[in-house]
Design goal:
The protein is an all-beta fold. It contains 1 helix and 39 strands.
């Protein structure tokens, strides 16, 4: 047995990438012997043969794409229509002329005219249905000749004999159409022989085992958006793509993190701080998936502390008699944003969030923020707090600041209002969500809550509402009094003939 290797260059459709697939050209059998029984019998009207090739003669896993027979002499007149099957078998020989491998255990790989495939002494047939050889079992090749006429010339192919001369070939030929399910039931000629055809196989093997490069195995202080890289330990890139698997120390099973065509991947969605992550990679091509790489792990950096310096936090009455709150940060690090809280006394525990999340910019330069409280309708003393939220979930407070508010009647013409449904806050929420809205004129208002499946679970029939700023509270309870589950909810407001929509996320 001799083996040769061919480098096949192919283009990947749709992506414009040039990839190199490593195909193995395997030649099985040597010598100058010839015979006319395998793979077809040209003198007969019909013929059927099966031949067994051992795993140790092949020794490559992958897709068999071409099958070649070593041609000795003769043409293909009236012997050109072949139907070829392949299959795995644990059989090492045929015991007698009835010991056929069942056709339902085989896969058809070719059906057509073979006369145009002869070149330089080899009949090389491209398989229309590539066979996935497992490299564990022996390979059976079955050939049916279906041309309905006999050939006036003998068609010879080169044959070889295995060590110890087992009966590795079985054949039928005759004038009856071959019964592939029960070949021995036909009237004709049968035999088992201790020689079979010299053949060639083209197999596209799966890629080899990837080798992980960075981050080094066990390396710590790794960014939460690291770049993972690897390669293949061969001189030629045999992969069409790679599958990256990742899991944290808190997960039992790997998940497919991404599928890419290059030998590196930048993690865009931040990982958790101070966490051990395990990762591995496999490569794939037309021949299938190769083995996994070794499992490596890395440890992400420590969670940087929240850094915030607030220079000013104050309130004043605006020219439309609303409370305007303003603050300036000198520096922001690892901050998600701010909320405004309000109460009628100095007890923070009784204060409520009145604003949506005001996103932080996380800049080292001074940054001024502001928020206007449109919801005050009664005169009195009010207290405000500034809540700041870190990316790691930590929170802190500034305040309170005290505001003395007096109701003043302002002509409608001085107030420019636009009907709208404002952002729900906080978002995500637990246990309550504030749903603010504005009306440019007196309107009938209804607010509906829908779950992710589009089912209406809650209705607020608010009746006729005056122009101005308003707010309702939803406690996450549906119409039946049941606490809703975690998820995304659609908030729909109908004011007059207008409709508005926002999303709210319940996260317990």
């Amino acid at each position: 047995m001799r083996k040769a290797f061919l480098l096949l260059i192919s283009f990947i459709n749709g992506c414009g990438l040039l990839t190199l697939c490593y195909a193995n050209l395997i030649s099985i059998g040597t010598g100058n012997y010839r015979d006319l029984y395998f793979p077809v019998h040209s003198k007969a009207v019909y013929s059927y043969s099966q031949q067994i090739y051992y795993q140790n003669e092949i020794n490559y896993k992958g897709k068999i794409t071409k099958l070649s027979f070593r041609h000795y002499s003769g043409d293909f007149e009236n012997t050109n229509h072949w139907c070829i099957y392949m299959g795995h078998t644990e059989k090492t020989e045929f015991n007698d002329t009835r010991d056929w491998i069942q056709i339902n255990n085989l896969i058809q790989v070719f059906d057509g005219d073979v006369s145009n495939y002869l070149s330089e002494g080899w009949l090389t047939i491209p398989l229309t249905n590539q066979f996935d050889y497992n490299n564990n079992s022996n390979l059976v090749i079955a050939v049916v000749e279906l041309t309905e006429l006999s050939n006036d010339d003998n068609l010879y192919f080169n044959i070889y004999t295995k060590v110890n001369s087992p009966y590795t070939g079985i054949y039928y030929y005759g004038s009856n159409y071959p019964s592939l399910s029960y070949p021995s039931s036909m009237t004709g000629n049968y035999g088992c022989l201790n020689y079979i055809c010299q053949i060639g196989l083209e197999i596209i093997s799966p890629p080899g085992k990837p080798r992980l490069i960075l981050p080094y195995n066990g390396e710590d202080n790794i960014s939460i958006t690291p770049t993972l890289s690897w390669d293949l330990p061969v001189t030629v890139d045999t992969a069409q793509g790679y599958k990256l698997f990742l899991k944290s120390e808190f997960e039992e099973e790997y998940t497919l993190y991404d599928q890419i065509t290059i030998q590196s991947h930048n993690i865009m969605e931040p990982l958790d701080y101070e966490t051990t992550y395990y990762w591995k990679v496999l490569a794939y091509n037309e021949g299938g998936e190769g083995p996994f790489s070794d499992e490596w792990h890395f440890i992400t950096i420590e969670d940087p502390p929240l850094s915030l310096e607030i220079n000013h936090f104050f309130a004043y009455i605006s020219n439309i008699n609303k409370v305007n709150l303003q603050w300036t940060s000198q520096t922001e690090i690892n901050l998600s944003g701010y909320y405004i809280l309000r109460s009628t006394n100095k007890d923070l525990s009784e204060a409520h969030i009145i604003s949506p999340l005001i996103n932080a910019t996380n800049t080292s330069q001074p940054k001024t923020y502001s928020y206007t409280d449109y919801e005050l309708n009664d005169s009195g003393i009010y207290y405000y707090w500034l809540q700041y939220n870190g990316l790691d979930g930590t929170i802190g407070f500034n305040g309170p600041i005290e505001v003395s508010y007096e109701t003043i009647l302002i002509p409608n013409s001085d107030i420019l209002l636009i009907t709208s449904l404002d952002n729900v806050y906080p978002n995500p929420f637990n246990p309550i969500a504030y749903i603010p809205y504005t009306l440019e004129s007196k309107s009938e208002v209804k607010i509906y809550i829908y779950n992710a499946r589009g089912q209406m679970i809650k209705t607020f029939d608010l009746g006729i509402q005056d122009k101005g700023h308003h707010r309702i509270i939803w406690d996450g309870i549906d119409e039946d009094g049941t606490l809703c589950s975690n998820g995304i909810y659609n908030v729909v407001m109908r004011a007059g003939r207008s409709s508005f929509q926002r999303k709210a996320v319940l996260k317990k």
